[in-house]
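re: ur question from yesterday

yeah so i grabbed the chain u mentioned. its 138 aa long if i counted rite. heres the sequnce exactly as i have it in my notes:
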Amino acid sequence: MASRKTKKKEGGAKRAQRASSNVFSNFEQTQIQEFKEAFTLIDQNRDGFIDKEDLKDIYASLGMDGEETILNAFRMFDPDGKGHIHKDNLKRMMMTQADKFTAEEIDQMFKSSPIDAAGNLDYKSFCYTITHGEEKEE
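ran it thru and got these structure tokens back, copy pasting raw so excuse formatting
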């Protein structure tokens, strides 16, 4: 949530202003335009958000299967091809590599993850859940 600042206008009236983010000052105008164009290409339904359906559409247009892409990412951490990764190893990697997750984010992920009694995450089932959603009991 952006913080708000109050600025005094002429005549003494106060007006709330959104604090500006400085993130775009790191890029040239041509780069910002490229980001906007890329976002527009991915936002297939033009609702201003990139959601699961948009990602499915973009993967399909690139000839890629989203589920297979995610599976391949998990397979990198499963050199023996067992189909599972111990949750502690996955948690450690996700908290220390690239876009670091918090312990709370990982615990939330594990709540809906197929983890056996030994603590192994069945990443094939997990990838299915990510790409197709959880099955709902009726």
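noticed a couple things. Helices lie at 29-42, 52-61, 66-75, 87-96, 103-111, 123-132. also The chain is about 45% helix and 10% strand.
anyway ttyl
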